């Protein structure tokens, strides 16, 4: 008789709107991913985090404690990017260009650990899978210094398993994003990928995140 594998439990987080904006592409995409998930090999859980330097890491820790995941994927938006960009590094620094949703603008180190912590998910494999699904994607070396990076750092320091962060373009159903430049940094715009255009619609973000979850789910021995 064959052995039935227990589904891999994966927690995916997105963010609420911030800075007076009406939407956050990361939260919208993660919510839709959870609502449409249909792969029995993965027990998918999703959570929307506050855009708060203080409360977001705490909310992530609570979600981890509640779901006891095998892997954690955090998602945020980057206003100037047109590709989906899995992040390689979480840096030990906070620098808020605008106040968070609690009105805080902290600066300085996050913790007493290394200056940079490496992602524990397969960044290159995820980029390859997203591109195979027709989504413009490229690895990023800089997650910024805003709440996204702080949550990325919290995932790596507060959870022992596979954990990483993915930035998505700050798409809006109508109009332009008011915020999101906090994580643009010096990241390049997407290179020519043989006619694959930049990401322009929420369903593409959901497709990209689905590809990421599938790659992470295959990482279990």
TrEMBL record:
Entries under Gene3D superfamilies matching the protein: Peptidase C15, pyroglutamyl peptidase I-like (3.40.630.20)
Taxonomic superkingdom: Bacteria
SUPFAM superfamilies: Pyrrolidone carboxyl peptidase (pyroglutamate aminopeptidase) (SSF53182)
One protein family per Pfam: Peptidase_C15
Keyword entries, A-Z: Cytoplasm, Hydrolase, Protease, Thiol protease
PANTHER family (alphabetical): PROTEASE FAMILY C15 PYROGLUTAMYL-PEPTIDASE I-RELATED, PYROGLUTAMYL-PEPTIDASE I
Family label: Belongs to the peptidase C15 family.
Name the record gives this protein: Pyrrolidone-carboxylate peptidase
